[in-house]
Amino acid sequence: MDYGGILLIAIVASITGGTLRNLFLEERPIWLAQPWYFLAILLAVLITIGLRITKPVGKVVLGLDTLGLAVATVSGVQFALDNAAPSYAALILGVLSAVAGGLLRDVLCQVEPVLLHRETIGTACAVGALVYVLIEPTALPNEIVALISGAVIILVRTISIARGWNLPKVK
Amino acid sequence: MDYGGILLIAIVASITGGTLRNLFLEERPIWLAQPWYFLAILLAVLITIGLRITKPVGKVVLGLDTLGLAVATVSGVQFALDNAAPSYAALILGVLSAVAGGLLRDVLCQVEPVLLHRETIGTACAVGALVYVLIEPTALPNEIVALISGAVIILVRTISIARGWNLPKVK
Amino acid sequence: MDYGGILLIAIVASITGGTLRNLFLEERPIWLAQPWYFLAILLAVLITIGLRITKPVGKVVLGLDTLGLAVATVSGVQFALDNAAPSYAALILGVLSAVAGGLLRDVLCQVEPVLLHRETIGTACAVGALVYVLIEPTALPNEIVALISGAVIILVRTISIARGWNLPKVK
To answer: Residue A1 in 3-state DSSP?
Structure first.
């Protein structure tokens, strides 16, 4: 894949989840009004290429990826609730925000989608989103709700990777 | 594929067509306000896994699939007309409602899309949708228009499967 | 692939880019109100099949494809600016209008996406779109801005094909 293709895949993987979430809620995608969105992606691509990071994904990248999933899920649930989505729909939109980009990335790269076959990405995000919508109606301030839910996502994914947990597969 | 992946594919296959139709018509997806949508999908996945239905698709499943195509097409055409789409666009949105989910399912599962290579799914839905927009301007009540169009879809698909009809392929 | 599949791929390749652009700008897809859109696609498919054009892509088709990219990019940028998108977003929406259809076509046909691996489709469109948003604020009439930007796209792609230019690939 050439450098243009890499940049395009990076953009698609970054903005797909939030873009779908906003379309479903009848809002304009956030990147339409926020140029820093693309500057951040461009910077990340330049750093990755500049450092010639082509080794297999290591602990740092995996940690950043988990953090990204947590942020995407939590902000997705929050945005959905702020836009009059019922709790169950906010849960689904939160998970969608986090996983849709990686799914489309894998499809465009013609590799087996990680989301469907390995790891517990979807499970971790779903559990965190569930915690969010369950504790959101309490008196807890929004920041605390977000921190707890995000921590749950990071915990579930980190533990499941460390212990090699997977959802059962069809026999 | 693990159980989470199966649930995700079931959701994607079920809601993609109607979701796209609504986005194109500038309406919120129906599942955003209707939780029973997901309960029905979850139930269907649990039944399928519980009964360990992993045999090749049989007559009952094929019949249910054809019924689903008919319902999706007819309700898609109806919804489009109700939302100020012209007849030709309602025809296309009806077919889209019925076939988009299966197409995305096949892409995510990395198999050859059934829609593009085999069977007469698209043709059956297109013929039924055409019948709908042709007889809808008559004095016939909506229910009868829907029943006739749905019956046409079921007939075309059932006969074409029974007789092994296919659209001609490029030589 | 049967004739129905070919028609469907032709439709998807033609309308995806503009449809996404409109959804992101909260506008209805243009084909919802313009039936000639589908008539043109149908005519193109009939001509292609009628003439049994199954030879490898030749100079005429490549020229038409480049012209199509230029028209899609320029009209995409213009439409985005007309709908209150900032310049950087109009640039991205212009490129998206031009390349999304071909990308989805390749995914549905299960072939390696041309956009990501070969040629300079994306680069040519991005350069042309950049020229558009740079010279649009000047006193030049819109038609001239569109012609210059379109010519840039055609030039960049034609030269890069003639000279075998490619973006560098990751080693």
So the answer is: coil
